[in-house]
Amino acid sequence: MRVSREEDRRYCREVSLFITGRKIARESSKLENQIIQAVGLVDEMDKAINVFGERLREWYGLHFPELWDLIRKYERYVKLIITLERRNRFTVERLMKLGYDEEKARQIAEAAQSSIGAEDMEIQVVLKLAHLTAYLIDERRRMVEFIDRAMMKVAPNLREVAGPMIGARLLEHVGGLENLAKMPSSTIQVLGAEKALFRSLRRGTKPPKHGIIFQSSLVHGKPRHLRGKAARILAGKIAIAARVDAFSGEFIADKLIKEVEEKIGEEDR
Fold first, then answer.
1. 156-269 in CATH: which number?
2. Domain range list for the chain
């Protein structure tokens, strides 16, 4: 039986598409594994930043104990220590050059002038700790940016609907996109809250209404009595987004986001 040229071309095209699809799937799988590792690293970095930040707060607090109460964010706190070093350099003019408004700059400067902290502390060793903490904060930011770029390639719909970090955490929690795509929305809703779920089953108490997806502003930004419903609506759209990313590749995130916002909006009314 002779094969026509047209059939031959069609066969070659189908084989080419199949091979290309396999290559893309393999590359996505590699990137997916990198996302899973990166999420774990971000969590480890968060722990390290908290440990080093707390140590820095206690150590620099010997020199300027009032500063932390006026800042309360490690990134800003560390930047001030590295830039100004000793508290006698905390002037209104310098603080305003660093982006603080006049009222806040005056508060900090006055606290520095009246500080009860030690004057003659060896500052260089504290600055080394501050630089190490700043390095970790900066590397964490870069890792989050990598996760965002990788999610755009691996699961663009999930990235848009859940957010890059929440989507990545869901992948890390279940071991990959295909596993997430096979889960019902009711399971996705409580991923990350397994301990609370098992505890409720043992004790006969109410089960948790949300897990990882509570981090979404669409859930935690709602009044307490609406969070369960918001989590259920969001989990439903995350399930659809994951399935499309895993088995179709079509981009439908805009439609899904609109539906989420409309349904949650209806619950608000």
1. 1.10.246.90
2. 9-154, 156-269
